[in-house]
Design brief:
By secondary structure, this protein is α+β, with helices and mostly antiparallel strands. It has helices at about 15-25, 65-85; strands spanning about 30-35, 40-45. A hairpin with a 2-residue loop joins strand 1 and strand 2.
Length: about 90
């Protein structure tokens, strides 16, 4: 299956509907893009946590529960700051 797509002046492309359906892509979402042998490969990402391990670091790997807990604490902290400053 081959499609011709346009590239905008901002470097954006639209993925044809047939390809989105075949890959199970939603209208809004994220994808990984890599270059292999001078070709661009696009892979859909279902959830941010699926990126686990894709970035190199020396830090300890967090579990899904730890990530969710830290995220919830951060949101609660920001909400608390907003209520204290009136924003």
């Amino acid at each position: 299956m081959v499609f011709t797509v346009s590239i905008t002046s901002q470097g954006q492309i639209s993925i044809p509907a047939k390809i989105r359906r075949d890959l199970g892509l939603k209208k809004a979402g994220k994808a990984l893009i890599r270059v292999e042998n001078r070709r661009m490969v696009v892979e859909p990402i279902g959830d941010l946590l699926e990126l686990k391990g894709s970035l190199k670091t020396n830090k300890k790997t967090l579990t899904s529960s730890e990530i969710h807990e830290l995220f919830a604490k951060d949101i609660a902290s920001k909400k608390n700051e907003e209520s204290n400053t009136g924003h």
